[in-house]
Specification:
Mean pLDDT: 78
Shape: rod-shaped
Distance between the termini: 221 Å
Low-confidence stretches: 1-6, 8-39
Number of strands: 24
CATH architecture of the largest domain: Sandwich
Order of helices and strands: HEEEEEEEEEEEEEEEEEEEEEEEEHH
Strand order of the largest sheet: 7-6-9-10
Number of helices: 3
Amino acid sequence: MKKILISFCIISVMVVGNFSFQENTVYATERSNDEKIDTQELTVDPIQDKSRTITGKGIPGHYVNFLNSTQREQKGLNIPVDSEGNYSYSLAEGERLNSGDVIIVFDSQVAGGLQARTTVLENKAPTITGEEKTRLNPNQDFDVMSSIEAIDTEDGDLTNQLQIVSNTVDTSQSGSYEVIYKVTDLDNHEATFTRTVIVTEAPIITGEEKVEITENETYSPMETIHATDKEDGDLTSRVKMIDNPVDIAKQGSYTVTYEVVDQDGNRAEFKQVVVVTKDITNFENPEVVKEIGKVNKKSEEVVGSNKEQVISSEKAQETLQKTTEKKTYKKSLNEDKKRLPKTGDSETTYFMLSGMSLVIFGGCLILRRKK
């Protein structure tokens, strides 16, 4: 009873009086017979609003008392300190600590009083931090844990306890994906974090894949080339020729290589085949003249051969026509003979009578004139 009375008096003085409390740890010196003894330590561990116990260090064999100075409530009396210097007080059912409450622990067995205090902390959920939006090039390696960390006020670093709830990222296909992370602290408080991953699309170069020109003909390598990008739009002005071996003065096949890079660093290549052929219209070129001579000679031979064939054909046609006409004429005569009657004697008699008639008629005319 005497101890309880003394404790109550000390608490009353602490609440009303102006005492200077040292945060968490206070040192005091106990005097006996005016003799100085070893310095003793009294501490109180950090307390959270969800905590159900108050713990700390004290003088072995002593007793400590607790006071919630914010609520002006006494929380515990004569809590023993064990031989290891540890004490522990469990809150009674219905008791609770609020964030911001100031808890004072004191040891009345030390002359002048030995005190310590701490502020009740809010037991917060852990937090996950990292890159909220990540852009990747097609087929680029993706480290799902890159830049991601988890921290808890009470439990410290929880990065190694992070869990990946969902990960749909496919770097082989352009698009937007999500990665969801989760972590749980020792007080079963959970935190989640969503990371957006965008797989970009490479630009595209278009143009004529094959171009044919004659020797010394003007060649414009950028004439048909265009470049577009889904995110950056028209990139034609940024197209570069990284290889252009074309020699317009020399026949042959050449390959021109183009390249373009978008803002995300995606590269695209395009190859165009350029074929340089002989210019057959260049009459100043001896080789061309020679080739043209060969062509003309061959043409003349063909024409000459064709001419002979034409003349021979015309003669054959003329002979055939004459033969046909003769055959036709003979056939016609034969047909006429067949139609005429066989009257040879009658024809002779007819001619003779006609002659005699003419003679008689002539004689009559002469006699008439003489009269």
